[in-house]
Write a structure and sequence with these properties.
Oligomer: single chain
Radius of gyration: 19 Å
Order of helices and strands: HHHHHHHHH
Structural class: mainly alpha
Shape: elongated
Number of strands: 0
Number of helices: 9
Helix content: over 70%
Distance between the termini: 13 Å
Largest sheet: none
Length: about 210
Amino acid sequence: MKDARSAESLVMLLGGRTGAIDATVPPVVFVAVWLASGESVPAGVVGALIAAAAVAGWRLRRGTPPRAALVGVLSVAVAALIVLRTGRAADFFLVQLASNAASALAWAVSIAVRWPLLGVVVGTVLGQRTRWRRDPALLRAYSRGSWVWVLQYVIRVAVFAPLWMADQALALGGARVALSWPLVAACLAVSWWVVRRSLPPDHPGLRHPR
């Protein structure tokens, strides 16, 4: 791991900052407009949809593939349909709560079946396909690093679920901001450290599976 080329930042590999910011803007706008309009759910939904469209346009101008940009708009649209149906502002965050629970389960299962998602993502970015799985040291390191990602999603669920059940839309908006990029950045840093510490000293690094 002493080779400079192998010291890739997981921030660069996974692009955490952009995704976290993009996912945060529409919920924050929803809460802000909802409050400013006298707690009008339809007004909050309109604001969130406009914000989602603006974020998608910004991402497209930055060269993001159309499918990736549209996924964000679709998730906001689903959240909008749910909250318009229930009339309960906290339900705007139900999709995010469910997606974090599903993500925690998916990452945990990937570790259990020896296909840790951290290895899948980094291996794909580095053009290794599945060669990293034939390296026992890398497989072990990616498995340990993936547990950090499981913890990230569990933390979100543990915070979001009680606030959602209590119908605390404003607190959910604040939690969404606090647990977006700061938590992703911490997760990236810690998982990178765990992967590096898990590899033996003589290992050639992530770019060179044995």
